[in-house]
C-alpha cells in the first residue's frame, strides 16, 4: 500500500470491492470525521494516523479516552477482534494487512502521562486568554491594556504569577493609564484575578511557563521514513474543556504563524486532528470563529491538514464545514426533530450516488462502516460511498504504564521539557522595582528625619542663646512636612510594604500585593 499515492481507508461499492483512498495531494484540504458515540470514530482516527505516519507525515491528535495510546505497540493475534479484523481485511482486499506499532511521542499539559507541554502567557496572547477566562468585553479590554503595558515596560509575561502581578501594577497606575487607554476598573481587574485563580486551581499554572513547547519537535520523521505520531493525553484535561479547546486553538495558530508557504505539496507537512471539536465552537464569540475560519482557510497553503472530529457535523459552523473536503461520516441517530434536520443537512453536503439514498445510508451504516467522500482530481468532491473501514495495525485500546514509560524514554525529546525554568520576568522585575522604590523612599525619609533633628537642635540652641525662631524657618519646616506627605502612591506603597518585611504578616502582605491583591474582591 505504501507505493500508492493515497491512504487506503477501506472498501466501498458493491460487496466493498472498490478500494477507497484519501489522496495525499489533497490531504491538506482538511476533513471531517463525524458520528454518534460507539460508531467507530476512534478506529477511523487510528487508521488515518497510522497511514499518515507510514507516508512520512507527522500528526498530532488528542486522546480524550485513553484509547489511542495503543498506536505505540503492534496489535496481537490474541486480541478478541483478531478474527473479525482478518475477515474484514479479506473482504476489502487488504492483502498485506499485518500488525505493527508506530513511533509515538506522548504529551500532557499536566506532565503526568507524557512530556510536559508549556507555553508563555505572551505567546497565548490576550484574545485566546480572554476566551479561556470567559471574560466580558470590558474585561478583555483591561487584559489588552495589561499586555500593552507589558510591552512598553519590557516586562516578559511567562507564567500566571507574571500576569497576576502585572494586573496589580495596572491597578495601581489606573489613573495614569486611563488618560491613554480609558477607564481602568478595579472591579474588572478583580474579576480577571479571580478567573486566573480558578484557572490555577484547575492545574493550568503548569501549562504557562518555560521551557515552552517548540512545535518543530512534533515534526520529527524517523530514519525509517515514518512520521511521528504526537498524542496529547487529554482524559484529565477534558475536565477543563475550555482549557482543552483553547490549547488546541493556540497550537493551530502557532502552526500557522511558524510555517512558511509551500503551495500545494505532494503530501502534507503535518496533519492536525481536532477531537471533540464542538468544544471549540460552543458559545464562541464571532471574532474567534472568524479567526478559526481564517486559519483553516489559509493554513492548507502551509502544508497542514486539519481534521475535525465530532459527533454531529452541525457542531461545526457552516463556513468552516464548507472547507472540509475529505469526509468520513459514521452513523447518526435521528430520534428528535432536530436530529432529523441535522441528518438531512449532513446528507445534503455530499455528491450523490445513484445507487443509494445518502440520508438513509447515514442512518443505516453499522459499527466500523461509514459514508465517505474524498477529494479527487482538481480537488473535486468524490461521489459519496458506503465504506467498510479497514482494521488497525496497532493495538486497539490503551497500553500499560510500563509501555508508556518506555515510549517516553525513547522519544526524540526525552528530557528536554522535564525541568521547569523560572527566569526573571514580570513578577521578579515588578517586585525588584517595588523593593528599590521602598528602599529609596526609606532612605529619603531617613535623611528628612536627620535634617529635621539637626534643625530642631539648631532652633533649641537659638532659643537658649536669646534668639527667636524666624517665621520663614517655620514655613520652611511646614513646607518640607507637606512635601513628605505628598509622596507618590508608589512611594507610599513601597514604604508601607518595606516596613512590614520583618514580620510574618509582612511576608503575607508582599505575597498578596505582588500576586493576588484583587483575588478576594
How would you describe what is shown here?
The protein is α/β, with parallel strands linked by helices and 521 residues long. The chain contains 18 helices and twelve strands. A hairpin with a 5-residue loop joins strand 1 (6-12) and strand 2 (18-23). Helix 3 (121-133) packs antiparallel against helix 4, helix 4 (137-152) crosses helix 5 and helix 12 (337-347) crosses helix 13 (358-364). The N and C termini lie far apart (63 Å). Residues 471-486 and 492-521 have low confidence and may be disordered.
Jot down its keywords:
45% helix, 521 residues, twelve-stranded mixed β-sheet, 18 helices, single chain, alpha/beta
Order of helices and strands: EEEHEHEEHHHHHEHEHHEHEHHEEHHHHH
User: Regions with pLDDT < 50 over 5+ consecutive residues?
Assistant: 471-486, 492-521
Number of H- or I-type helical stretches: 18
Amount of beta strand: 5-15%
From the spread of the alpha carbons, the general shape counts as elongated
The biggest sheet amounts to: 12 strands, mixed
Provide mean pLDDT, rounded: 87
- Protein structure class: alpha/beta
Calculate Rg over CA atoms. Answer: 31 Å
Helical residue percent?
40-55%
> How many strand segments?
12
